[in-house]
Amino acid sequence: MLAPQLAPLVAAFYETVRHGSITAAARHLSISQPTVTARIQQLEKHYGVELFHRRGSRVELTQTGAALMPLIDRLMESELAIDCALRDGRTLDAGSFRLGTTGPYYILPAVAAFRRRYPNVQIGIEVGNSKEVLDALVEYRVDVAVSSNRVDDPTLARHRIASDSLVLVVDPSHALARRRSTDLNVLAHETLLLREPGSRTRDATEAALKRRGVAPAALIEIGSREAICEAIRHGLGCSLMPSGEVPRGAALASVPIEPDGPVMHEYLYHLKSRSNARLIEAFMSVLDAKPMEAVDTYADAS
């Protein structure tokens, strides 16, 4: 294990490499950017080495820094595994449960039920994209991860917790808002608002349009669901969203897509090696009690 005085210095270096910048590392560590820089410089000075090449605002690993990363990776994994093992051994009258998710919409009912059943367990929720939450899972930083991204990995247990149809979301004043349902062909005359590349909603939207041979009249890319909803309210266009993710009370109209509207699935993952962990078993018992589609293997047929 690291000496206590070195641990924050090594963490600053490690998170800078993992997140690609000092700014992102500072955000992840909840400290200031100058503090991250100072800690890296202190580590370099302590050992008389150079870990990064500085090129303006960019940093690149030196040969020494690159050689150090696999060692720190193993160290961090060991420390996190120890933390998980100790937390798994606690009674459920205390302890903490950590969840990573790409969005709160489908998992919060189970989290609320878990909270009611185990009120003394501290709950932490980390929100990120699919890669971030699954990375956090395999690095032992979260106990379970929720994502719409289907991953076939023999080390992971995958449970399908929801299936949701995509709907067309428009402003209530839009002519399409008065329809009981609509076809994707209407998008040939509309401006379609799309999430950023890598979004599972965008992937599902583009796949559905390709299957139907539909090309929207125009496209606007917007990097968050909240911003897309605001753009719809300002008349910039329409969008496709899973029906469960359309904000309630947001003065938006949802129109079902027929026939064969695209469907997205939501999955919960945990490490198979931790299937018998008390915290995970407790959460899964709550999850299985909810009206969700739980599938116990990573090779489900969805």
Descriptive keywords:
transcription regulation; globular; seven-stranded mixed β-sheet; LysR_HTH_N; disordered C terminus; D-Maltodextrin-Binding Protein, domain 2; alpha/beta; 302 residues; 3 domains; Arc Repressor Mutant, subunit A; single chain; 21% strand
| Structural shape | globular
* Oligomeric state of the chains present here: single chain
The first-level CATH class of the largest domain is given as Alpha Beta
So, CATH architecture of the largest domain? 3-Layer(aba) Sandwich
Mean of residue pLDDT? 85
Count of helical regions: 9
Q: What value does the Rg take, in angstroms?
A: 23 Å
State the CATH superfamily name of the largest domain: Periplasmic binding protein-like II
The helical percent reads 25-40%
Proportion of strand residues? 15-25%
Quickly give the structural class: alpha/beta
Number of strands: 11
Report the order of strands and helices: HHHEEHEHEHEEEHEHEEEH
From the 3D structure, determine the CATH topology of the largest domain.
D-Maltodextrin-Binding Protein, domain 2
Query: Quick one: biggest sheet?
Result: 7 strands, mixed
Measured between the Cα atoms of the first and last residue, the distance is 43 Å
When the domains are counted, the total is: 3
Q: Which spans of ≥5 residues are poorly predicted at pLDDT below 50?
A: 291-302
